[in-house]
Amino acid sequence: MTDAVPLLAARAVSKSFFGNPVLRDVSISLLPGRVHALLGENGAGKSTLINLLSGALPPDSGSIEVDGRPVSRLTPIEAAQAGIAVVQQELSLTASLSIAENIGLGAFPRRFGMIDYRALTARAKAACELVGLNEALSTPVGQLPLGRRQMVEIAKALYRKPRILILDEPSSSLSATETKILTDLLERLRGEGVAILYISHRLNEVMALCQHVTVLKDGICTADRPLAGTDAAGLVRLMVGRDPGDLFPRWKPSGSTQTAVSVRNFSAGLMRDIDLEIRTGEVLGIGGLIGQGQDDLLLGLYGAIPAKASAAMVNGVAHLPASVVKANAFGLAYVPADRKREGLHLIHSIAANLMLPALARLPALKLRSGANEDLTTKGLAAQFAIKGDLGRQAQALSGGNQQKVALAKWMPRDPLVLLLNDPTRGVDVETKREIYILLRQLAAAGKAVVLLSSDTPELVHVCDRVAVVREGRIVAMLERAALSEEAIVAAAVGADRQRQAA
Amino acid sequence: MSISPSTLAGRGIPLYWAVQAHRSAGLNGLFLVVLLFVAAYGVLFPGLFTVSGFATFTQSWFPLALVAMAQALLMLTGGISLAVGATVSLGAVIAATTMPGPFGVAGGVIAVAVAGLGIGAAIGLIVVKLRLPAIVVTLAGSFIIGGAALLILPRPGGAVPDWFSNLLAGDTPVAFAILVLIVLAWKVYLATPLGLSLYAAGENPIGSYRSGVPVDAARIAAYGISGLLSTGAGLFVAAQTGSGDPVIGTAFTLNSIAAAVLGGIGFLGGQGTMRGALAGSLLLSLMISVMFFLGFTPVVQYVAQGLIIIGAVALPQLRRLRQ
C-alpha cells in the first residue's frame, strides 16, 4: 500500500493569515482505500489544511498534488472535477429547497436545459440510501433535525461520486445510529478505493475507523503514522504536548473563598441539568471543545438567554436574573468573545466605551459630568495599562487592548462575578500575560472570575478549578491538584471513560 | 395558474409534484382569505362572473401582479428594489412615445423590454459585483430612472394606438391570458438550474458557492427579469390609460413590497414562493376594490390597508412566539 500514488497530497504547505502562521511545512498524503484521521486541538490548523486541499484557499508555499501531479492553482471547481468532495462543518444546505434539490444543487442532471427531476430522483435516492436517509425526497430540508441535515450534507457529497472524500467533524451532530451508518458507509467506500480524510474529536471513533493518523499542533505536523499500535492516551499527548514557557504568572492560592453563585439542575440553550458553584476568590475555568454549550452556560447565568434551574443563589438572591439589567444589578458582568461586535462600539471613543456600563446606572435624565467621567476613564486606563489618547476610536486599539477596554468598562460597577468568554482569543502574547495577571489579581481581591477558554494551557495555569463541558453537561470538575492539559482534553473528547473501561 | 412545465419536461414526475405540494403547504390560509375576498367582491359586484366583468377585474389586478413578481423575485435572492415604481413609469413613457413612431407597436414592445432588462441587469451588476446594499443602489436608481422618465416625457402625453389599448384593456380577458403565460414562463425558469439557484443564492450564498451554484449569475439574472416585469407593467398601464404619464408608477414601489410581504415572502432571502406573492397581490387588489365599493374614503382605505398588512405579517410571528 505504501507504493500507491496518493490521490491527493499536500507537500510542505504553509499558510499565514495577517502574518500569523497557521500551517508550517505540513505534508499529508491521501491514499486510495485508506481512512486517514486528522487530529488536533481547536485552532491547530485543521480547517485551513482542508481549505488548501479542497482549493478554497491557495497555500503560501508548498504544493498540492492530485494523482501525483502538482496543481499550480487548485480552485473549488477544479477540485470538484478531480473528484474531491468536502463535507464541511457548516452546512451548505438551503432550508426552503427539498432534500433532492439540495443534494443536486450545483450539479443537476439536465434535460433541454431544465432540471431533469426524473434523473435527479434516481440519483438522489441512491445517495440517500447510502446514508440511510429514508425521508421523502421532496421534504424541505428546513423541516429536518440537525443530525438528518448532516446526513443530507453527506449524501450531497456522495452524489458527486467522489474519489477523495473529506469529512470535517461529520459526527458532531449525529446520533449513535447515524454514526454507525456513517462508519459502515466509510468502510464500504474505503473498500471501493476511495481516499477518505476524517476529522473528528471523538477518539474512539477515530481508533475504530481509521488506519492512519496525522496530528497537527499549532500548525505543525507532530505525527504522521499508522494508527495500529497507538492508544487514545498517546494521541492526546501528541495533540497537547507543548511547553507552557513563561507565559503564565506563578499560580498561588487566594485567601478565603465563599460561594457567589450556585445553581442546581441549571438548563440554558445546549446546557442540560448541570450543577455548578462559583466561588469568590478563585478563577473557575470552563473548558471543552468549541460549541458544547459553554457559551450558553455563561449567557444563561447572565440572563441573556432563557434559563431555568431547580434552585439558584446568585450573590444572595434566590433566583436567576431574568434579564441582563437584572444580572448587572445582582453584580454580574459579562465580557463576550466577539469583542468587535458584542463587546465594544468600535467607532466610538475609548472613553465612551469605558463609560457605558457606568452611565447605565445613572438616572436617565441626569446631566453628565465631564470632569467625573474624565477621572473615571483615566483611572481605569491606568489600572488596566491602556495606553494613549482615550479620545481615539476603539478600533484604533490592538486586539489585546480592546479586550482590556471590554473588561475595564465593568469595573466602575464593581461586579462580584466576572463572566469572561474566551478573553485571550486573538490577543498577542504580551497582553495575554497582562490579562492573566489581572485575572489573578481580581480573584485575590475577592471577585469570582469565570474564565471560558478554548485554550487548554491557560485553563491549567490560571484557574483554581476547571469544569469541562461536553455535549451540554459538565463531564468533569477538575480541582487544582488534578489539573493538566491531558486531563482536560481527555475529558473533553471522552477519552477518560474509555481508558477506565479498557 | 396550474398549467405546468410537465408537458415540456416529461409527464408525471412524482418528485416534481411532491416538491410543489410542499411549497404550497404554508399558503392554505392565504388562499382561503383570497377566496373569501373574491366571494365578497362577487357579491358586491355581481358582474365579476361575466366575461367583461372578469376582464375588467383582472386588468385592475394585472400591473400589481407583475410588480409583485418583480419584487418577490429580488426578495428571494435576499435583495429588494425601491426602483420598481420609477421603472414602471419609464416603461409607460417609453411605450407611449415609441408606439406612435415609425416602428409601431412591435417596436414599442421591444423598446420597453430592452429597457427593462437592461436597467435591471445594470442595477444587478452594481449590487452583485460591487457588493453594495440593494436598498441604497435601487433608491439611487429610482431617482435616475424617474428622472429619465421625466426627461423623455415631461408631462403626460404620447399615445398608445386604440386597437392595442382595446386588445389589452378591452372587454376580453387578454391580460389574464398573458398573466397565465408569464406564470408558466416562471415555472419553466424555476425548473432550470439557474432559476432554482435563486433560492440557494438567497438563503445560503456561501454554502451555495461551495456547492458550485452560480450565485452571482443567478442574482444578476433576477434583477434583469425584475426590470423586465416592471417595464412590462408600465406598458400595460400606458395601454390602460391610452397615454404615458412619467409619475404614474410611483405607488407601485411600496405596493409591490406590500403584496410580496402579504404573500409570505421573507426579507432574509430564500423564503416564500411566487404563488404566494401572486396571491398577495390579488388580495391587495381585492382589498382596494372591496373598500372602494363599500364607500371607504381614500384616507380610511390607506389606514385599513396598512393595518391589514401589519396584521398579516404579525400573525405567523405571534404563532411562532407562542410555540
Could you list some keywords that capture this structure?
heterodimer; A: 502 residues; alpha/beta; Rossmann fold; 3 domains; six-stranded mixed beta sheet; 22 strands; 35% helix; globular; disordered C terminus; B: 323 residues; mainly alpha; 15 helices
Question: What is the topological layout?
Answer:
The complex is a heterodimer of chains A (502) and B (323).
Chain A: E1 8-17, E2 20-30, E3 34-39, H1 46-53, E4 61-66, E5 69-71, H2 76-81, E6 84-87, H3 99-104, E7 110-111, E8 114-115, H4 117-130, H5 146-159, E9 164-168, H6 176-191, E10 195-199, H7 203-209, E11 212-217, E12 220-226, H8 232-240, E13 258-268, E14 271-280, E15 283-287, H9 294-301, E16 307-308, E17 311-314, H10 324-329, E18 332-335, H11 339-343, H12 350-361, H13 370-383, H14 399-408, E19 417-421, H15 429-444, E20 448-452, H16 456-462, E21 465-470, E22 473-479, H17 485-493, H18 495-501
Parallel strand pairs in A: 3-10, 3-11, 6-9, 9-10, 15-20, 15-21, 18-19, 19-20
Antiparallel strand pairs in A: 1-2, 1-4, 4-5, 7-8, 11-12, 13-14, 13-16, 13-17, 21-22
Helix pairs in contact in A: 4-5, 8-17
Chain B: H1 6-9, H2 14-24, H3 28-44, H4 51-76, H5 84-98, H6 104-129, H7 134-152, H8 162-169, H9 174-190, H10 193-203, H11 205-210, H12 215-241, H13 252-262, H14 274-293, H15 298-322
